[in-house]
Write a structure and sequence with these properties.
Largest sheet: 3 strands, antiparallel
Order of helices and strands: HHHHEEHHHEEHHEEHHE
Low-confidence stretches: 2-17, 168-185
Mean pLDDT: 80
Radius of gyration: 20 Å
CATH architecture of the largest domain: Orthogonal Bundle
CATH topology of the largest domain: Lysozyme
Structural class: mainly alpha
Strand content: 5-15%
Strand order of the largest sheet: 3-4-5
Distance between the termini: 26 Å
Number of domains: 3
CATH class of the largest domain: Mainly Alpha
Number of helices: 11
Helix content: 25-40%
C-alpha cells in the first residue's frame, strides 16, 4: 500500500505552506470522517484512532488521486475485486485499486480487510484503546513496508489527539461470532474459509487450547497439519475443525511474498497443506518461491 501520495509529499514540502495549513487539512479530514471511524470501531473493534490515522496517512488527508477519484482512502488494491476499479502507479506502474461509490464504502472495506485476514487477528486480542499496540502490530503483520509506519501512525494520533475517539467501553463488548458463554467465552473465535479458528495467545500450546476447547490435542494437530514437535507462537492460527481442500472463491490465487512458507499460506487460507501441494503440482520437497503464483482452488 502506498504510504504517502505524491500530492501529500508536495504539500508537505511546498514553499510557503505553513504548519497551520497542514494542520487544517488534517483537522478538516478528521471532522468529516470521525463519525464513520467510530461507527467502524463499534462494528469491527478496530480503534477509531487507528482508522483515522491510516486514512490520513494513506490518502494524504483525502487529497490523493485515489481518494479524490476512487473514494479509496486506504490504498487497497484489487485482490480479486469484482467491483469498479482505477489504475494508478504504486510499487509498480498502472496497478489496480478498488474504486468505491462513497468514502464510507472504503472505510467499511478497510475494516473487512483487517478482520478477514488471519495475519491481523492477533490485533483483536489487544485492548480497544491500545493504539500503540495496533500501530506496531499492523507494521509487524505486513500492512506496510515502511519501517517507520507504526511511528508515523502514533505521531498522527498523538498530535491530533485521535485517541479521544476511541471508545474505552468497547473492550467489554461482545464480539460477533464469539459465544456469550461456554467453552469459547473468554477466547475470540473467528472464521477463515468458513472454518472456526482461534489465534494463539502468549504461553498458549496445543495442549492449552485443547483444554480450553474440549478438542483432543491430537485432533487439533491433525486439523492444523502440525506434527507432535510443532509449537505455537503468539498470533498463530489454530483451526478447530478440518481445513478445506481448496480456498474460498474470493481468493483463487496467492502471490508468495518474502518470508512466507507453504505451511503459513495453507494456514492463512484454511487449506489442507497436502491439497495446496496437489493444486500446484508440487512435490513435498519443494518450498515456496517469492513471486510464485499459487493456485488456491
Amino acid at each position: 500500500m502506498k504510504l504517502f501520495s505524491t500530492l501529500l509529499i508536495l504539500l508537505l514540502l511546498a514553499p510557503g505552506l505553513t504548519g497551520q495549513t497542514r494542520d487544517q487539512l488534517y483537522n478538516d479530514y478528521i471532522s468529516e470522517y470521525h463519525r464513520i471511524a467510530t461507527a467502524q470501531q463499534r462494528s469491527h473493534r478496530i480503534p477509531a484512532s487507528i482508522i483515522l490515522a491510516q486514512g490520513l496517512l494513506e490518502s494524504g488527508a483525502g487529497r490523493s488521486r485515489l481518494a479524490r477519484e476512487a473514494n479509496n482512502h486506504f490504498g487497497i488494491k484489487c485482490h480479486e475485486w469484482t467491483g469498479n476499479r482505477i489504475y494508478h502507479d504504486d510499487d509498480e506502474r498502472n496497478e489496480c485499486f478498488r474504486k468505491y461509490n462513497h468514502p464510507r464504502e472504503s472505510f467499511e472495506d478497510h475494516s473487512i480487510f483487517l478482520t478477514s485476514r488471519p495475519r491481523y487477528q492477533s490485533l483483536f486480542l489487544l485492548p480497544a484503546d491500545d493504539y500503540k499496540g495496533w500501530a506496531h502490530g499492523l507494521k509487524s503483520a505486513g500492512y506496510a513496508t515502511d519501517p517507520g509506519y507504526a511511528y508515523k501512525l502514533i505521531d498522527i494520533i498523538e498530535r491530533f489527539e485521535l485517541y479521544r475517539y476511541d471508545r474505552h467501553d468497547l473492550s467489554q463488548q461482545h464480539l460477533p461470532g464469539i459465544p456469550e458463554s461456554g467453552l469459547y467465552a473468554e477466547r475470540p473465535v473467528y472464521k477463515s474459509n468458513g472454518i472456526k479458528m482461534v489465534v494463539a495467545q502468549p504461553a498458549d500450546t496445543y495442549a492449552s487450547i485443547a483444554a480450553a476447547t474440549g478438542i483432543r490435542e491430537d485432533r487439533l494437530r491433525f486439523y492444523n497439519d502440525a506434527p507432535e514437535h510443532a509449537t505455537l507462537h503468539p498470533g498463530s492460527v489454530v483451526y478447530l475443525s478440518k481445513k478445506k481442500k481448496k480456498g474460498s472463491r474470493a481468493y483463487p490465487v496467492h502471490v508468495v511474498q518474502e518470508g512466507e512458507t507453504l505451511y503459513g499460506i495453507a494456514q492463512n487460507y484454511g487449506i489442507q497443506l497436502i491439497r495446496l501441494y496437489e493444486l500446484n503440482n508440487m512435490s513435498l520437497q519443494q518450498g515456496a518461491s517469492v513471486g510464485q503464483v499459487l493456485k488456491l482452488r
